[in-house]
Amino acid sequence: MTASPGLRCATLRDVELGRFGVWTTYQAIGEQNAGEAASLVQELGFGTFWLGGSPRLPTVRPLLEGGERLAVATGIVNVWAYDPADLAREYAELSPAYGDRLLVGIGIGHPEATSDYTRPLASTRTFLDGLDDATPPLPRDRRCLAALGPKMLDLCAERSRGTLSYFVPVEHTRSARERLGPAALIATELACVVDTNPESARAAARRYATLYLGLRNYTANLRRFGFGDQDIADGGSDRLIDAIVPHGSADEIAEVVQAHLDAGADHVCLQPVGTHDIPRPQWAALAAALHSGQ
Q1: What is the mean pLDDT of residues 85-94?
Q2: Range of the domain at 72
Q3: Quick check: pTM over 0.90?
Q4: Residue 94 CA to chain centroid, in angstroms?
Q5: 193 vs 38, 128, 153, 284, 286, CA distance in Å?
Q6: I need a labelling partner for 197 at 20 to 30 A (CA). Which of 67, 167, 239, 273 fits?
Q7: 270: domain CATH number?
Q8: Residue 114: its pLDDT value, please?
Q9: CB neighbourhood size of 112 (10 A)
């Protein structure tokens, strides 16, 4: 895999995300294994460990301790689960020791998750106002926002370092870069299945995709990029599954990573699915493929 001409490293002042990261949750790897997982991710040459599953911010401490050079990002802390003053305070407690390696990913979640879900754009603005008004505030350049639609993307550039996108095709990355211009961070999550058997790989991808194909914010975004009801129904068409959750060898998945980078992503975080515990073989294979072209 060759590097995009002129591609810059995704940098947040002193927080260097690198070009590649991994994405997982404590539900998948076990919180007790956080330090071991972070150390492995750093050893393999990934720049950032993304912790999903709507974590509380203090739970990233073992990851920061496990990889002394590794950036750690949340993907995402949920607006509905937090008071902004509490999040700013928790960041301030971690910042003296780890601020140059900690990025706070923030998101509104999806309407099916909470009965409080109303006016997502206005609610996110209000939450960000709370972060700015806290003592001390959570700095703009130490946060990014999950975004799919155009208005939320605009808010990312206006009020944070940039955007974290999830469950998106390459076309979304290209559209986001065209909308946001060259300065904003675009970090793209890419779920994948490291499996060269198309039948078993697509089955694993569909098991993962089922949740998201039942959530309105994700399906609305897919429709914006040319996927219709037949693509979304029954676990997803092959066309949709292959675009959103690529499968194959690590080298083949690395080609999709490169497509996101070519489309304007600064950073791609990979989430192997269909795995159990710490996915050591998958992380190692992906790292080797991603770094072979550098």
Answers
A1: 98
A2: 11-189+264-282
A3: yes
A4: 21
A5: 21, 35, 28, 13, 11
A6: 167
A7: 3.20.20.30
A8: 52
A9: 12
